[in-house]
Amino acid sequence: MSRLGVAPDVVVACSAVLSESERQRALRFKVDRDRRRFIVARARLRQLLAAKLGVDPREIELSNGANGKPHLAGRFAASTLRFNVSHSDDIAVFAFCDGAEVGVDIEAVRPMNDVDEIAARVFSPAETEALRALDGDTRVRGFFECWTRKEAFIKALGDGFSHDFNSVDASGWRVESFSPAPGFIGAVVTQQS
Questions:
Q1: What is the CA angle 192-160-190, rounded to 5?
Q2: Mean pLDDT to the nearest integer, 62-68
Q3: CATH level 2 (architecture), domain 104-191
Q4: CATH number of the structural domain 2-99
Q5: Where are the domains of the chain?
Q6: Which helix (H) or strand (E) holds 9?
Q7: Phi then psi for 95, rounded to 5 degrees?
Q8: Is residue 55 within 8 Å of residue 75, measured between CB atoms?
Q9: DSSP 29-90
Q10: Higher pLDDT residue, 116 or 166?
Q11: What's the pLDDT at 163?
């Protein structure tokens, strides 16, 4: 886990680690806060990957799959290291796995008035029924636990939002929920061999 709300000098140092295309991408963010969060999260990803691969963070080559999932590219394309990133507010989490796909998602738990309506659209009937059995804050937390598990699974597949959320079947995958910080729910999904 990394905090993304950092001092301006740290953002400048993080920007120096990024590729030119990543710096250009950062400039396209309209909101300064979002730009800073992207820079810090991407720099931290590069630093973590570099530590695992034994290289300088600026040497990491990344590309995106058809639906946007990042992966190692160039001289690292043959690596079996898989990774995924998620961020919400000023928190970022990173997941790594050697030889198996991985997905991670986090969300800030916040009050929601439309939990049942969203669940009816994207959760399976059994998940929706289980959610309706919960009350108050427990229901909102249950919603985010289910949501992050589904999102992490879809991210592990690399399908993006083209995947039908209510038909998610994670058999053959390990799914774990966690709380990276107070007020946040996360899930990590790894492919089982």
A1: 15
A2: 88
A3: Alpha-Beta Complex (3.90)
A4: 3.90.470.20
A5: 2-99, 104-191
A6: helix 8-15
A7: -125, 140
A8: no
A9: -SSHHHHHHHHHHHHHHHHHHHHHHTS-GGG--EEE-TTS-EEE-GGGTT--EEEEEEEETT
A10: 116
A11: 52
Nearest to 188 by CA among 170, 176, 171, 180: 176
Whole-number Å distance between alpha carbons of 4 and 39: 9
pTM, two decimals, is: 0.91
Amino acid at 64: N
Distance CA 148, CA 184 (A): 10
List alpha helices for 89-135, DSSP H.
Answer: 115-122, 125-132
What does the block give as tokens for 188? 């990590």
Joined together, the tokens standing for residue 165 give 């959320």
How many of the other CB atoms lie within 10 Å of CB of 108?
13
